Amino acid sequence: MLKVPALLARQAIYPLQELAFKRPTFPYLAELEQSQWLPRAGVEALQQEKLRRLLALAHAHCPWHRQRLNAAGLSPDNLSSLADLARLPTMDKQDASAHREELVWAGVPGGTFKYNTGGSSGQPLIFHFGRSRQASDAAGRMRARRWWGVDVGEPEVYLWGAPVELNKTDWVKTVRDRLINQLVLNAFAMSPARMDAYLDAMEGFQPRCLYGYASSVALLAAHAQARSRRPRLAGLKVVCTTGEPLFPHQRELIHEVFGVPVANEFGSRDIGFTAHETPQGQVLLMSESILLEVLDAAGQPVAPGEMGEAVMTGLCSEAQPFIRYRTGDMVRLSPEPDHAGRGLHVIAEVVGRSTDFLVREDGTIMHALAGIYVLRACEGLAEFKLIQHTAVDVEVLAVANARWNEDSAAGIIAGLKQRLGESVRVTVKRVDSIAPEASGQHRYVVSHVRLGGELDRATRKT
């Protein structure tokens, strides 16, 4: 399988691509390689400097933030410590949605790009990001890969999905990916035959890193195990998982099949790449780009080592600033420093939300995001829950917002039929609220369709 020499990809093709897109990825990567070795006080001084700049931009270009900053008596000039940020009330997804026009800086250098999120949270959000945020995400992952001995431009396989029609291929992006040694395999169409082909493609490509949704990578591992197949990947250094919790049995399964360590990352579309696991088993915050507060139910900081809600400020979110943004995720900071000597903050535990797979009538297994992409594109939804009762019977519980109209339900039905097949019966039920599961967990995609055999090992939640 054709690959570009890693040195050429790293030193020429990849930097030229980022330059063409006006993304300062490689300059930021160079900064991150230096700043990670600052002592903790130095890292926090850098955070304060970036926060001061973000507040200045938000005050100048975002009317909603300007009103909030003025009301709190907070300005870049009187920010004497990171603790001063607590004078500003938190914001949440509803605030970001309701005040979108007053939050976006249309004139941000490099332009703004519209995106949507909701992921497994069940609360869709349309927002904007800029080149600085893109560079932060890309550079942060590059640095994290280097912790594991995988350098920029070395071959990587992505087990991923995309919010586009599954029968269309963006050939320009495919070529671009291949020029920087990235091979993308579709996580939204994982039939047994396709998974056999994926394993063949990986052996032909010989990646240094496999990256994908935690449950999708576990599913591929379970399939390989059911086939009594041990992928021949001599150069593989690490499997990096993302997008959802990585359960211990999934980590064990992936390690067993691929024979390399498994490193989990933490992030979201609205805030961006947030943290990554190290070879020493710690999860490090990307402290240069994310300011993390861990708060209790009353909005007060918890003691180090205690669980609380992750409230984040995206220090590279100039296009649409997320300042003291309540993510809904529960985290616990560790009082320990990084074992390798970095000054980055250490996250002891992340309690995210989990979702199930969706199964087409023909047996094709799809990551839950295949359905979530359809639902979060509907601006009329404030919250949702998708329940797959059988392979041909799907129910959507919908909490509507002010943008809901007579076409909203029809759009949801058409979109899900496009993903799951025209024979699927889709029922959209309007509700006032959506209760958590009996366990207290919020699951926003629930499938009652069993996968059977070894595949169930990859998909169970415990």
Give an account of the 3D structure:
By secondary structure, the chain is an alpha/beta fold. The chain folds into 3 domains: 199 residues, Rossmann fold, CATH 3.40.50; 112 residues, Rossmann fold (3-Layer(aba) Sandwich), CATH 3.40.50; 102 residues, GMP Synthetase, Chain A, domain 3, CATH 3.30.300.30. Helix content is 34%, strand content 23%. It contains 14 helices and 19 strands. Strands 4-3-5-6-7-8-9-13-12-11-10 form an 11-stranded mixed sheet, with helices on both faces. Helix 2 packs across helix 7, helix 10 packs across helix 11 and helix 12 runs antiparallel to helix 13. The protein starts with 5 loop residues before the first helix and ends with a helix.
In short:
By secondary structure, the protein is of the alpha/beta class. The protein is 34% helix and 23% strand.
For this entry, give a set of tags.
single chain, 462 residues, alpha/beta, Rossmann fold, GMP Synthetase, Chain A, domain 3, 11-stranded mixed beta sheet, 4-stranded mixed beta sheet, 14 helices, 19 strands, 34% helix, 23% strand
Which regions are unreliable across 5 or more consecutive residues at pLDDT < 50? 164-169
DSSP strand count: 19
The CATH class of the largest domain, by name, is Alpha Beta
Main β-sheet description: 11 strands, mixed
Helix content: 25-40%
Mean pLDDT across all residues, rounded? Answer: 89
Please state the overall shape, judged from the principal axes of the Cα atoms. Answer: globular
Return Rg in Å.
22 Å
| Strand proportion | 15-25%
Looking across the biggest beta sheet, what order are the strands in?
4-3-5-6-7-8-9-13-12-11-10
Number of helices: 14
Gross CATH architecture of the largest domain: 3-Layer(aba) Sandwich
Separation of the first and last Cα atoms: 38 Å
CATH superfamily of the largest domain: ANL, N-terminal domain
Q: Indicate the CATH topology of the largest domain.
A: Rossmann fold
